[in-house]
Design a protein that fits this description.
Oligomer: heterodimer
Largest sheet of chain B: 6 strands, antiparallel, barrel
Structural class of chain B: alpha+beta
Number of helices of chain B: 3
Distance between the termini of chain A: 9 Å
Structural class of chain A: mainly alpha
Number of strands of chain A: 0
Helix content of chain B: 25-40%
Strand order of the largest sheet of chain B: 1-2-5-4-3-12
Chain lengths: 186, 281
């Protein structure tokens, strides 16, 4: 990923538009009683295409935006989404998944991390909720729904970030054996 | 080289985690009018017009999805509603009769008439944003303090109680729904007359629980639950008496009276809120 003002603008737009779309529309569309949550998918997509640091920072900013926009407890979403973004970036580095269906797994995993992390944070903050079958069922349905929409979301994010990613690839191609020195996204 | 990169990545993550924890701590230490709260209200003020615009622009998309879902439910719902209509016609006839008697009796006792929601100066507002997770059941509306909307005012829809105003800025407000973890309402079961407190089943998006009921055994499935209103002048309720909260869907029998769990389904369809009314008086 080439870090220039264009990359920042594109990431900012992904976050802003994604969160506003989530709050105004996606949250009101229900499948089996649950609505999809785009935030972990966007964060994971940025993580795999732009690297774990970008994923973590993007996750933190998206989480902060969600918490501010909905007057939620500040810091919870930031914490959870920063970890999800970092995890996605690390997954890309360690496993280098190439199969298109890997995005399904990425969507499911990042959503599971976010949903379970959010639940844990709430329990630690004193929410008097039982670990009920309904809660687990909700998390499972959310993970499934998000896994299904992960492929188009990741493709879209990749498309938006492509100019910044393409520059990176072209530059690497010009440097012989570049992958031996600094090929991994950071 | 590689380890340096890995160390840098971990340090960034550790920094972000630390920053989140600092934010969390500061948030809980912050007073209602504190800097973080003010910052959130300010941001809400800026974002509200954008959210409202996006909400209106994307309404056709929501309607399309809603139409598919609604069509699937429509047939079953129609038959159910026909039965309910017939039953309600009978009840209306009986209630009209009882209402006439009531007016006469109140006249005799010189008591004030039962207040209607109109007397609470309802302000109609459009829902412009909604929280995506079950832990914070909140929605944002396009009316704020300049329309008379203030913190803690009750919010209703045509179907029943929706929630209360959590925070208001001049042009928008955030509503905590009755399924939000911060919620608790004194309530009463209509048929049995049993009092209790309605609390959300936290972590689930639609379930409510009627708690602290002295004689839970008297409550039956299908019984309606309404707001109890102020019972003690020293502890006034935020909610007027008689607003429909929901109906009992299930009674989980426990070992004793106190272990019995009464589940309620909210009367208002909290997932498909388009318009709500804030009772501003």
């Amino acid at each position: 990923m080439t870090w220039n003002h264009q990359a920042f603008i594109r990431l900012g737009l992904i976050g802003l538009v994604g969160v506003i779309l989530q709050l105004t529309t996606i949250s009101q569309l229900h499948f089996f009683g649950i609505s999809a949550d785009l935030s972990p998918l966007l964060v994971a997509a940025v993580g795999i295409y732009a690297g774990s640091i970008a994923g973590a920072v993007f996750g933190f900013c998206v989480g902060l935006f969600v918490d501010i926009a909905l007057l939620q407890v500040l810091g919870v979403s930031s914490l959870v989404l920063a970890i999800a973004g970092y995890g996605a970036g690390n997954w890309q580095i360690l496993r280098e998944p190439n199969h298109p269906l890997a995005l399904l797994g990425l969507g499911a995993l990042s959503t599971a991390i976010a949903a379970v992390g959010f639940a844990l944070a709430q329990f630690l903050l004193g929410a008097e909720a039982p670990v009920s079958g309904t809660l687990l069922q909700q998390i499972l349905v959310l993970v499934l729904i998000n896994a299904l929409v992960a492929i188009p979301i990741c493709r879209l994010v990749k498309r938006i970030l492509r100019p910044c990613l393409a520059n990176d690839r072209r530059r690497r191609r010009r440097i012989p054996n570049a992958h031996l020195t600094t090929s991994r996204p950071s | 080289m590689q380890s340096k990169v890995v160390r840098r990545r971990r340090m960034v993550l550790a920094g972000l985690v630390a920053l989140s924890v600092i934010l969390l701590t500061a948030y809980f230490d912050d007073s209602p009018g504190g800097p973080l709260g003010s910052m959130q209200r300010g941001a809400m003020e800026v974002l509200a017009p954008i959210q409202e615009g996006a909400n209106r622009a994307l309404k056709p998309v929501r309607d399309l999805f809603g139409w598919v879902g609604s069509t699937l439910h429509a047939t079953g719902e129609r038959d159910k509603l026909k039965k309910e209509r017939d039953q309600l016609r009978q009840e209306v006839a009986q209630l009209r009769d009882a209402g006439q008697e009531n007016i006469q009796m109140r006249g005799l006792l010189s008591l004030p008439q039962i207040t209607e929601l109109k007397s609470y100066k309802p302000v109609t507002a459009r829902v412009i944003a909604r929280s995506p997770n079950a832990w914070f059941a909140t929605v944002e509306i396009n009316k704020g303090t300049k329309d008379g909307v203030l913190r803690d005012q009750p919010v209703v829809s045509g179907e029943g109680l929706v929630g209360k105003v959590k925070e208001a800025s001049s042009g928008s407000a955030v509503i905590a729904l009755i399924t939000d973890q911060s919620f608790g309402i004194s309530a009463k079961a209509v048929s049995s007359g049993e009092p209790g407190t309605v609390i959300p089943a936290v972590g689930t998006s639609a379930d409510l629980v009627l708690d602290l009921v002295p004689h839970a055994g008297k409550i039956r499935k299908g019984e309606q639950v309404i707001t109890a209103g102020t019972k003690n002048a020293a502890l006034p309720s935020l909610f007027p008496k008689g607003i429909l909260i929901g109906a009992v869907t299930k009674v989980d029998e426990g070992d004793g009276e106190l272990d019995r769990k009464i589940h309620i389904k909210a009367a208002a369809d909290l997932r498909r809120l388009e318009f709500v009314q804030v009772l501003t008086k």
